[in-house]
Amino acid sequence: MAVLDVRDLSVAYGDHVALRDVSLRIEPGQILGLLGPNGAGKTTLMNAVVGAVRPRAGAISVCGVDVAAHPRRARAYVGYAEQEIAVFPTLTARENVRDWAAICGVPRRQQDEAVAATLSALLLDRIADRQVRTLSGGQRRRVHCAMATVARPPLLLLDEPTVGVDPGTRRAVLEHVRELADAGTAICYSTHYLPEVEALQAEVVLLADGTVATRGGVADLLDRYGSTVIDLRIAEQDSDPRTISVKVAGPHALPAVVQGLGTDLHRLVGLDIRRSSLDEVFDRVVAAGEVPADAP
Ligand SMILES: Nc1ncnc2c1ncn2[C@@H]1O[C@H](COP(=O)(O)OP(=O)(O)OP(=O)(O)O)[C@@H](O)[C@H]1O
C-alpha cells in the first residue's frame, strides 16, 4: 500500500486554480522530489496532504486513511517541515525537538535517545542547548527539520529544507533524509536545487502551473528530454587539433562513435562527453508546456 496516495487533486484559492488533476503516490522507503518553478503548486500540495487546504476535487490518503474523512488520524502519520520556520524562540533547540517528540507521541523513555540521534544527524549537538532565538537562519531551519523527523513518521513532507544552509550542512540533511528513506520512511522533498534530487536518487514529479508536467527517475528524465554530445579532438598535421561534435542518444554510443573514425582512429587525441543537466531538461519541459503525464 502506498504511504501517500494523491488522486486527481485539484485545489483553488478563490478563482485561482493552484493544482489541477494531480495524482502521485509515494511508497515506503521512496523519496519523491517535488520540483517546479515558483508558484507551481508544491506547497499547496503539501498543505492539502496535512489537511490545511481543502481540495476542490480529488482524494488524498495517508497510510490508507482518507484525509478529508479523518483529517486528524491522517495527520498523525505525517511529519511536516513547512517552508516557514516554526520554532519556539525562547526554548533551546533540544527543548523544541523534545517537546515536539512528546506531542507526536514518542514514548517518554525513548524521547531522549530519539532527540539526541536526530540532533546529531543534523549536526546540531554543539548548539542543542542554546535558545533558538540566538541561532542563525540555517541552524533554525535544521531545528525545524529535526522536529519533523524526530518521531519517525511514516510520511515526511519537507518543503525546501535546505534553503539558507551551508554546503556541509546540506550534505548532512541529505544524508539524514536518505537514511530515513532507507529505514522505510516515505518522503516528499520539495527543492529548487536539482543536484539534491540526484544525490537523493529520488523519483521526480515536476509541477508546472499546477499540473504534472512530467515524472520519472532522474536518469530516465535525462534520457527522455536531455541530449548527449560527444566531442572528438582529432590531431591535424599542420595545425591545432580540430573538434568534431556528434549528437548521440546517450553515452552508450561512445564505442560506435569512436569506431566510426575508422583509419583516423590513431589521430584521436581527446574526447569529451557533454550531457544536459537536469536544470536544462526541466527548463525545457516547463517552457514546452509538456502534456501532463499519465497518473501512476
Ligand atoms: N493562501 C493563498 N491564497 C491565494 N493564492 C495562493 C495562496 N497560496 C498560494 N497561492 C497561489 O497558488 C499558487 C501555488 O502556490 P504554491 O505556494 O503552492 O507554489 P510553490 O510551488 O510552493 O512555489 P515556491 O517554489 O515559490 O514555494 C501560486 O500561484 C500562489 O500565488
From TrEMBL:
InterPro entries, A to Z: AAA+_ATPase (IPR003593), ABC_transporter-like_ATP-bd (IPR003439), ABC_transporter_ATP-binding (IPR050763), P-loop_NTPase (IPR027417)
GO molecular function: ATP binding
Annotated membrane topology: Peripheral membrane protein
Pfam families for the chain: ABC_tran
Matches recorded under Gene3D superfamilies: P-loop containing nucleotide triphosphate hydrolases
Keywords for the protein's UniProt record, in alphabetical order: Antibiotic resistance, ATP-binding, Nucleotide-binding, Transport
Highest taxon of source: Bacteria
TM stretches of this protein: none
Entry keyword annotation includes Nucleotidyltransferase: no
Protein name: ATP-binding cassette domain-containing protein
Annotated organism of origin: Micromonospora echinofusca
